[in-house]
Amino acid sequence: MHISEGVLSAPVLLSGAVVAVAGTAIGLRKLDYDRLPQVAVLTSAFFVASLVHIPVGPSSVHLILNGLMGLLLGWVAFPAILVGLILQAVLFQYGGLTVLGVNVVVMALPAVVCHYGLGAAARSNMRYLSISASFVAGFGAILLSGLLMAAALVLTGESFWPVARLVLAAHVPVMVIEGVFVAVSVQFLKKVRPELLETIHAKR
Predict the structure, then answer these.
(1) Domain chopping of the chain, boundaries
(2) 49: which residues sit within 8 A by CB, 6+ positions away?
(3) Which residue, 122, 145, 147, is CA-closest to 133?
(4) In sequence order, what are the residues at sequence separation of 6 or more whose Cβ sits closer than 8 angstroms to the Cβ of residue 12?
(5) Integer Cα distance of 107 and 119 in angstroms
(6) Considering the domain 10-197 in this protein, what is its CATH number?
(7) Which residue has better confidence, 200 or 111?
(8) d(CA 63, CA 142)
(9) Residue 117: Cβ within 10 Å count
(10) What is the 3-state secondary structure (H, E, C) of 33-74?
(11) Closest CA to 108 of 140, 52, 67, 72
(12) Strand residue runs (E) in the chain
């Protein structure tokens, strides 16, 4: 779900950069640095999962794991995803530095929405509620990311409407896969390491 350089207009790039900086600042302020290794592990998982790309127009389809990161990190997903995207842009030329802000917002903002909208339900002791909320978090995070990416393309120019629809449709299988993955991962963590499901940003 990386948007390539040279595609978006300057106003969209600037808006994305502003929101990304604000989100990253909030995430760093809320981060409990004693749990930094956990953030690093999730950033690594995001980095690896995003390496397998299938090109779709000016973007690409791949696993993101932002739903899982959202449930576990909340606002901290912003700096975590930012680090992963910087490494991908520098090492593998995925996305790019000028479009970094927009790509961060596309992937991190849905993670925050899922954290506050579904985090409590995903951690619930009611098994079916937890599974359902976790699936919706994984599915919904990709859906929201797809909508944000489509909006960025359309705001750049109406000529991107067909590409925006194609990219969103291409991510439907990814939505289902990520939904199942997050649901399974949360249930696994509840059994073996339930403390990892606690809110990671304890600092206020």
Answers:
(1) 10-197
(2) 62, 63, 64, 65
(3) 122
(4) 102, 152, 155, 156
(5) 17
(6) 1.10.1760.20
(7) 111
(8) 9
(9) 16
(10) HHHHHHHHHHHHHHHHHCCCCEEECCEEECCCCHHHHHHHHH
(11) 67
(12) 54-56, 59-61
Q: Name all contacts of 163-166 with Cβ < 8 Å and 24+ positions apart.
A: 163/57, 163/58, 163/59, 166/56, 166/57
Least confident among 166-170, 181-185, 198-202: 198-202
Which residue in this structure is represented by tokens 């502003």? 18
Contacts of 37 (CB under 8 A, 6+ apart): none
Distance in angstroms (rounded) separating the CA atoms of residues 135 and 119: 11
Asked if residue 82 has pLDDT above 90, the reply is yes
In this predicted structure, the answer to whether residue 50 has a pLDDT above a threshold of 80 is no
CA distance 76 to 30: 7
**Residues ≥6 apart with Cβ < 8 Å to 69:** 42, 46, 77, 80, 81, 111
Q: Give the largest CA-CA distance in the chain.
A: 49
Whether the Cβ atoms of residue 31 and residue 79 lie closer than 8 Å to each other: yes
**Tokens at residue 162, please?**
């067909």
Write out the two tokens for 129. 């509620």
The rounded distance, in Å, linking the Cα atoms of 118 and 170 is 25
CA quadruple 179, 180, 185, 191: dihedral sign? positive
User: What pTM does this model have?
Assistant: 0.87
Query: Is residue 199 helix, strand or coil?
Result: coil
